[in-house]
Amino acid sequence: MAADLRTQGHVCVTELVEHCINTTRDHYEPLGVKDWLFYHDALQQMTDERCRIWMQEKGYFDRWITPLFGLNDSVYGKGRDGKWTYSTRYKKRPVGDSPELVALDCHLNKDVRDCAVFHSALTSELPTGDERKFDLTTYKKYRDALVRLLSSHHSCSCCARANCNCGCLPPKRIFEDVVRSFGESLLQVQRAKGVVIQGLGDRNGDRKLAATFDLVGERRGGSRPSHKQRVKEIKEAGLEGIWVHPDAYNEWQELAGE
Q1: Based on the domain organization, do 145 and 218 belong to the same domain?
Q2: What digits encode the pLDDT tens for the residues 16-28?
Q3: Range of the domain at 108
Q4: Total domain count for the chain?
């Protein structure tokens, strides 16, 4: 069943939970940190009562950051009929996804996707099958490209380490967005007494251009720029210091220069 689900691009929720637990433990325990926690928003499969019971039996649930002291046990709001009422729907579960409070959703996932488009443009003239090529033509190739960009062990300029796994999300970018999410964004929500603040998690202005190599237009179909045209746009935007995967560095030097 698991193998069949994978062919459709799905995995069992228990596999997701195990991944959260194992990767977080493997990161913190070598540092001597025993009381580590992990955060994941209110994914329906994870908040399902059967999954919650399973997590409690495995000793995982207490590691998940969730509201304490009955905070979400009874929430007052309007129901589907428009009448104000109390709901226990959110009992023992974290809040839903708020992009302004989740660095990956707010900026970092887009950073990764646009970095993939950038590298696809750089390597588009490499022959099909070349292991250096970033090919986004199929789901599997796109997935493989993202994995390569996220997990790249090489000499790195952004953190000056000889063997680095920064990839297209260097630690300083992650730190920057986490501080933003759990700093000023959280304070703004608190000052507004918990209501949604329009535009707080939007990607606008110079930050969007500088962080994401804005290469993807809104239009569909029609003519599309060649990789040389895209690289020219990147140069004209003045984006010095762009992270380039070693597999694409020769093309970057040839077409755009350092």
Answers
A1: yes
A2: 999 999 999 988 8
A3: 97-258
A4: 2
State residue 215's pLDDT score.
40
Same domain, yes or no: 45 and 121: no
Sequence-distant contacts of 163-172: CB under 8 A, at least 24 apart: 166/243, 167/243, 168/111, 168/112, 168/115, 168/243, 168/245, 169/108, 169/111, 169/112, 170/243
Which sign, positive or negative, has the C-alpha torsion 140, 146, 152, 156? positive
d(CA 194, CA 227): 45
Q: Is 199 left (phi over 0), alpha (psi -120 to 50) or beta?
A: left
Question: 245 and 225 in one domain?
Answer: yes
b/e 151-186 (16+ beta carbons within 10 angstroms → b):
ebeeebeeeeeeebebbbbbeebbeebeebbeeebe
* Integer Cα distance of 69 and 63 in angstroms: 16
Q: Which residues pair with 38 in a beta bridge?
A: 64
Please check whether residues 173 and 224 belong to one and the same domain: yes
Statement to judge: residues 123 and 217 lie in one domain: yes
Q: What is the pLDDT of residues 25-77, one digit of tens each?
A: 988 888 899 999 988 878 889 988 899 999 999 999 999 988 888 887 887 77
Mark whether 29 and 157 lie in a shared domain: no
Q: Which DSSP category does 115 fall into?
A: H
pTM beyond 0.70: the answer is: no
Check whether residue 73 and residue 126 sit in a common domain.
Answer: no
Largest CA distance in the chain: 64
